[in-house]
Each structure stands twice: as structure tokens, then as C-alpha cells.
Fold these 2 entries.
Entry 1:
Amino acid sequence: MSAYLWVKLVHILSATVLFGTGIGTAFFMLKAYLSKNDEAMKVTTQNVVIADWVFTTPAVFIQFATGLWLMQKLNIAFDSVWFITVVSLYAFVGFCWIPVVWIQIRIKNHLAAGAHRDDYRVLMRAWIALGVPAFGSVLVLFFLMISKFGAYA
Ligand code: HEM
């Protein structure tokens, strides 16, 4: 298999880790929160924080690096509508994800200090408000990857 296809394989696997881990950890964290069981939330939040360091963080860098490499091979210009949209959406997702990681660590520390649901309700609302547009943007990124809309216009 060519280097190009190996890099594309890594790019798609990284996209799978980014989207899959994001959806998975969001689901378990939301379910733990809705269960009103602080002990369940405590254990879940500890694991969500670990998952973001182990899976999401490396994938964020691998996605961008392999994406730039693939662009070069496909002669997609940096001033193309496609790249400007992709990089703007990717940055937006990043600007949503960084406060989400901070919120998850805050909630983990609150719970470790014996906090209860009402103490982090506002943080969870912010977590949800940041998560929804971020996931919507990743779906748009998948569309742009497949359609290559504006890549050669
Ligand atoms: C969350 C962000 C991203 C996701 C989910 C994602 C996902 C994908 C997927 C599924 C493909 C395969 C499309 C196909 O086979 O037609 C792809 C291809 C590609 N991606 Fe991404 N990608 C993301 C970010 C990026 C970024 C930031 C760049 C550029 C810096 C990029 C550049 C590319 C290029 C150039 C291709 C075309 C490869 C080809 O068609 O052979 N991607 N991406």
C-alpha cells in the first residue's frame, strides 16, 4: 500500500478515535450526571479525564498533521474555501473542547473533595452548551472530508 494510503488510514483511524471517544465519554458522563448518583459521577469523571489525555489529545495532533500531509498530496490550496472552512471548524471545535476538559477536571476535583450534584450543576450546563456545537461541527467536518466541497473551486 502507498504512503498516501497509509497516512489516509491513520487520518481516518484518528478521526474515529476523536469522534468515538468524544461521543462515548459524553454519553457516560451525561448518564452518570442524570443518575443523580455522586459516586457514579465521581468514578465516571475520573475516567473521562483519563480518556481525554490518552485518546483525544494525541488524536487532535495526529488529525491535523496527517490532514496537512494529505492536503499537500492532493494539491488542496491553503486559501481554498475547503481549507479555510476546515481549519476554522477545527479551531472552533478546539476552543469548545479546551474549556470542556477544564470543566471535567474541575468536576472531578469537586467530587473528590466531597461535592454534590448542585455544586457542579452550572459547570455541567456549560459542558453541554459547549459539547453540542462542537459535535455538530465535527459532523460538518466529516461532510467536508467526503465531499471536498470548495477544495478546488
Ligand atoms: C475532526 C476533524 C476531521 C475529521 C473527522 C476528518 C475525517 C476525514 C475522513 C473520514 C476522510 C476520508 C474521506 C474520503 O475518503 O474521501 C478525510 C480525508 C481527508 N482529510 Fe480529514 N478529517 C478531519 C480533519 C482534517 C483536517 C484538520 C485536515 C487538514 C488540515 C484534513 C485533511 C484531509 C484531507 C486532505 C483528506 C482527503 C484524503 C482523500 O480524499 O484521499 N482533515 N478526513
Entry 2:
Amino acid sequence: MRKDHKPYALKRLLGAIEKFYINHRTTPQLDALGPAPLIMKPWHLKLHGANIRFGTAVHVITAKDRTVRLTTWQHEDGAGAIEIQDYALLCPGVRIDSASRVVIGTNTMLAAGVYVTDADWHGIYDRPKPIGKTAPVVLADNVWVGDGAIIGKGVSIGANSIIGAGAVVTKSLPANVIAAGNPAVVVRELDPSQPMQRREDLLKDHNQLSHDIDLLEQLMRKENTWWRWLRSKLAPRSGD
Ligand SMILES: CC(C)(COP(=O)(O)OP(=O)(O)OC[C@H]1O[C@@H](n2cnc3c(N)ncnc32)[C@H](O)[C@@H]1OP(=O)(O)O)[C@@H](O)C(=O)NCCC(=O)NCCS
């Protein structure tokens, strides 16, 4: 569809349904959920296990064909925990599996199809035995992980660092570098003189932000009528 024909009232209604779902279905599955979450189509966010915590203004973008899955495995007390810190972004198809501890730092972005795991989930020799080796994974503040990258057990990534699309990260990486490849290696350092904009710079006044977004929605949808939307669904025309 070239254009989203939904009338403003329908957009508001869908937003209210998402909010209701987050409050009544998602929140009970989480150990913590900070204020101003933005979880798009929350019914495609799949949560399995305990010790999953979301900070403030966490954004999760899901889709019917690319669910976001967070799974913890409590094989001993306190083990298996996922912490998504403030202003972090999880894109469609992201998977995080934890048998010990995974921390996704503030402002960190996980692009579509990223896989983060703190375990091998099978023994090298004792294959039927679940979990295998496990070691915590910690992504610091403002890390950007590119499309389809894999972050393995025991990896720590320093603040502001970028992981290239398709990379496989098996060893820890320092702050302020770009790393890429399989296995991922540092390809260059970030320029410290460049001012860094973080997601929180945009999102911290989330009341003002949602007010501005609402004004924009009203503006963008003022020509959208229920009839035009229904027709675009039932009998789409070229150029719709
Ligand atoms: C990591 C990335 C941001 C670096 O971009 P860049 O700064 O323009 O990097 P360059 O193109 O200068 O590449 C530097 C070197 O790293 C290599 N490299 C860069 N990205 C790579 C990747 N994903 N895999 C393997 N090697 C990569 C380049 O081949 C180049 O090697 P060379 O020095 O031997 O020629 C970019 O390559 C990338 O992966 N972008 C994808 C981001 C993404 O997934 N976005 C989705 C929406 S969130």
C-alpha cells in the first residue's frame, strides 16, 4: 500500500487497543516495565520465563512475520535474566535467549533479526544436556548492533560501539569502535571529536514527544475518511 489510509480516529483506537494489551497482557509477564513504553503490535512480543525487565521508554517494533522473542531459562536460582535498559530499541525479528544474564544498555539499538545469547544451549560433547557453556552478555550505553548480527556468550561491548550487519561477535569489544565480520574484529575507531546524539536526547521528554506525534498524526490523516480506508482494504485501486 503506497499510503496509510487509516482515519485518525481508527489510529487512536488501535493505539488504545495496544495500550490495553500492554497493560493487561504484557506487563504481567514482565518483572518490571518503566514508563512510556512503545511496543508496536505487542501481541507479537513473545516473552518466555522470569526475570525480564524493561526500563523507561523502551521501544519494540514487531511484525506478524517477525516476532520479537525474549526467553529466559531458570536452571538455578537467579539464573536466566534479561534487562532492557532505558530508551533501548528492539527491531522486528530480534531474539534474546538467557541462561545467566543479558543486559541491553541504555540507548542501545538492536536492528532487525539480531540474535543475542549468553549460552550455547547444548554441551560440546554432551549434546542432549541443555544449556552447555553460559556466560553473561553486557552491551553498554548506546551500542548499535546491525541487521542480522549474532552476539555470543560472555561478550561485553563498550559504549557507543557499532557492530556491522551480519557480524558474529564471539569476543568482547571496547568502547567507541566499529567491528564487523565473522568472527567480528575492529575495523576502525569512532572519532571522539564527533558529538554523539543518543535516543534519550529525542525521547526523554516523552509526554511532549507523544503530544507532537499526535499532532502530526492528526495533520497527516486529516484527508483520510472511513469510506476511503474501507475501499482501500476491500477494493484497492492503483495509486492507493
Ligand atoms: C558497520 C557499518 C555501520 C560501518 O559503516 P562504515 O563506517 O561506512 O564502514 P566502511 O564501509 O568504511 O567499512 C570499513 C571496513 O569494514 C568493513 N565492513 C563494514 N561493514 C561490514 C560488515 N557488515 N561486515 C563485514 N565487513 C564490514 C568494510 O569492508 C571495510 O573494510 P576495508 O577497510 O577492508 O575496506 C556498516 O558497514 C553496516 O554494517 N551498516 C549496517 C547497519 C544496519 O544494519 N542498519 C539497519 C538499521 S538499524
